[in-house]
Specification:
Layout (H helix, E strand, L loop, with lengths): L2 E6 L6 E6 L2 E7 L1 H4 L9 H10 L9 E4 L3 H14 L5 H13 L4 H10 L11 E3 L2 H10 L6 E7 L6 E9 L2 E9 L4 H11 L8 H7 L8 H8 E3 L5 E3 L16 H6 L12 H29 L3 E5 L6 H10 L4 E4 L5 H16 L20 H10 L5 E2 L2 H13 L4 E4 L13 E5 L6 H10 L8 E5 L3 H4 L12 E3 L4 H4 L9 E3 L1 E3 L5 H14 L3 E6 L11 H9 L5 E4 L2 E4 L17
Parallel strand pairs: 1-4, 4-5, 6-11, 11-12, 14-21, 16-19
Antiparallel strand pairs: 1-2, 2-3, 6-7, 7-8, 9-10, 13-22, 14-15, 15-20, 16-20, 17-18, 21-22
Length: 586
């Protein structure tokens, strides 16, 4: 029996993953425990939970593997400072002391943190290091349903690579080509995200959601001045407009001159120009994705494609690759960003270091985090003086579906937490998609976020073809699809302004409880879908525990909270527990 612990940390969205004989036992982000969104610290609480939940200590862990090589990343930062001298002096003065003090010695730091855990004194100290984009590749390929596939990873930057092309076959991964820093689609997207007044590493989703409200009138400007795209999809950034290689900021004043508007101040009014810039950036991203996909197909000859890296979560672009690209099938790791790299690193240890054979399994589902039994749920709720009712399964689905059909907002917490950035029916806020103006009200009164941001539909897999331009399943919300004529009028709260939706198809095999709830809602309303958004508010990570869920429930306009077979009504709770929610800006 072999236990492998994969870790990602120290940049953003740290996570831990546990493998047992090559099978995923658990995977979770540190933010779910710390309640700090995108927490980048060593995932101590995540590791402690997964060890305790599996009756293990560090003494039982055979291998620990970190998702990247810190020393090579340090070399890249040092070389970049020298390369861009004297402009790189500011970055050198601010970043290098931090690296010399802490990050260059991450092996020592990681080892110390692990030895401080239970059983750590007896741990064999077998610590390995992967490579950033190789971890992305592994997270994308090994859990996929493909025996062999092309692998395309795109993100900001790892050690040096920003975009890689590889081929996976069995347990082998072979890199064919790569682009290096500072030429990065992720950095381009993040720089314009910052220019539009949103936070880097979390606001990119907002830019993608804002794009359909604009027209791509700046697309040619971006292509002519910011990024030079070659026929094979390779590209170079014009660093005259950017500062991320030389300073601790993303862009320079030249960007405002190019767009002929000043940078947007965070939280200020969104103008049409901002929407047009977002639309233009997304159009360029879509085109580049398609060019890259064509090139990957030509040089690999593969019929399947796996996508990884944070930019692979851009479901507008990946939806176009799925529909218009050259591959028969496309699979995306639901935790495609750095958190998922902990999973990739663990698989690298299993298949590349230990050379264990890979068993291809269809139907990967990311319900890999903490779960709570009935006793644990009740104990937490009773400590909070919550008023609740225990309801049997049959009545639970009817009561919840009926409340949804009446226009109530429901917080739905079931089973193991999702691994990755998207709620897939276990830590979700649900609502009736037929309700007009629900998108605005849900954004402003429940999620406390910008009113333009779209919501996704969770829909019964057997019914999805009647409503959207899709064949097959899409269980992870990784692609957008076009709604069929007339659908927007029937379910206005889940169809974006451009007539698309980011779908989650739900089957009995994938998520039985969520499937039964959707079936029951359909039997009442003849509508096989629900609004599904993550159970959290702006600036906070998704809830993990019953206590987290209750706090979110009491401090927002959610009407019902369903945890397991327990139902809580807002009208039955002590009103003194309610206070206006003070969210953190993200």
């Amino acid at each position: 029996m072999t236990y492998i612990l994969g870790i990602s940390a120290f940049y953003h969205d740290s996570a831990a993953v546990l493998l047992k004989d090559g099978k995923i036992v658990a995977a979770i982000q540190e933010e779910r425990f710390s309640r700090i969104k995108n927490d980048d610290r060593f995932p101590k609480s995540a590791i402690q939970w997964m060890l305790a939940d599996n009756q293990l200590t560090m003494e039982d862990i055979d291998y620990v593997i970190f998702y990247e090589k810190p020393f090579i990343k340090f070399e890249r930062i040092l070389e970049t400072c020298i390369r861009f001298a004297p402009k790189g002096y500011e970055l050198f003065c601010q970043a290098i002391p931090v690296w010399l003090k802490d990050k260059i010695f991450q092996k020592v730091s990681i080892t110390r943190s692990l030895t401080e855990l239970e059983g750590g004194k007896q741990w064999n100290k077998k610590l390995l290091f992967s490579e950033h984009h190789l971890s992305h590749c592994a997270a994308a390929f090994y859990p996929s349903p493909f025996t062999s596939a092309a692998i395309l990873t795109i993100d900001g930057v790892g050690e040096w690579a920003t975009t890689t092309i590889s081929v996976g076959h069995g347990e082998r991964i072979e890199r064919i080509a790569e682009l290096s820093f500072p030429h990065s689609l992720g950095m381009l997207y993040s720089a314009i995200t910052a220019f539009l007044g949103f936070k880097v590493n979390s606001g990119e989703y907002k830019v993608m959601g804002l794009a359909p409200y604009g027209q791509p009138i700046y697309a040619n400007v971006i292509k002519e001045h910011l990024i030079d795209i070659k026929a094979d999809g390779s590209f170079h950034l014009n660093m005259h407009f950017f500062r991320f290689a030389t300073e601790l900021r993303m862009y320079g004043s030249e960007l405002a001159k190019l767009f002929k508007i000043p940078p947007r101040t965070p939280e200020s009014k969104l103008l049409q120009e901002h929407m047009d810039i977002a639309a233009s950036l997304q159009a360029v991203t879509d085109d580049l994705f398609l060019q890259l996909a064509d090139y990957v197909k030509r040089i690999t000859g593969q019929t399947n494609l796996c996508l990884g890296g944070g930019v692979a979560l851009n479901c507008a672009a990946t939806g176009k690759v799925l529909k218009s690209g050259p591959f028969d099938r496309v699979w995306i790791q639901p935790a495609a960003g750095d958190a998922g790299s902990a999973l990739g690193a663990a698989f690298i240890c299993q298949h590349l270091y230990l050379k264990q054979p890979r068993i291809v399994q269809d139907g990967y589902m990311p319900y890999l985090g903490a779960a709570f039994n009935q006793e644990q749920i009740q104990n937490q709720l009773e400590r909070l003086n919550a008023k609740y009712t225990l309801v049997a399964d049959g009545k639970l689905f009817i009561q919840t579906a009926q409340a949804l059909a009446e226009g109530k907002i429901v917080a739905w917490m079931q089973g193991s937490a999702e691994f990755g950035p998207r709620a897939l029916g276990n830590r979700s806020i649900l609502a009736d998609p037929r309700v007009a103006n629900l998108q605005r009200d849900l954004n402003l009164k429940i999620k406390y976020r910008e009113s333009f941001r779209p919501f996704a539909p969770a829909i019964l897999e057997d019914d999805v073809g009647d409503w959207f331009d899709i064949t097959g399943s899409s269980p992870h919300m990784n692609f957008i699809y076009q709604a069929k004529p007339g659908v927007a009028e029937q379910v206005p709260s889940v169809i974006h302004v451009d007539g698309t939706a980011r779908l989650q198809t739900v089957s009995k095999v994938g998520n039985e409880k969520f499937y039964h709830l959707l079936q029951t809602f359909k039997s009442i309303t003849n509508c096989p879908m629900l609004v599904n958004t993550s159970l959290n508010v702006r600036g906070e990570p998704m809830v993990l525990s019953p206590e987290d869920a209750f706090n979110c429930f009491m401090n927002t306009g959610i009407d019902l909270l369903v945890i397991g077979n327990i139902v809580l009504l807002k009208t039955e709770q002590d009103s003194q527990l309610y206070k206006k929610y003070h969210y953190a800006l993200d």
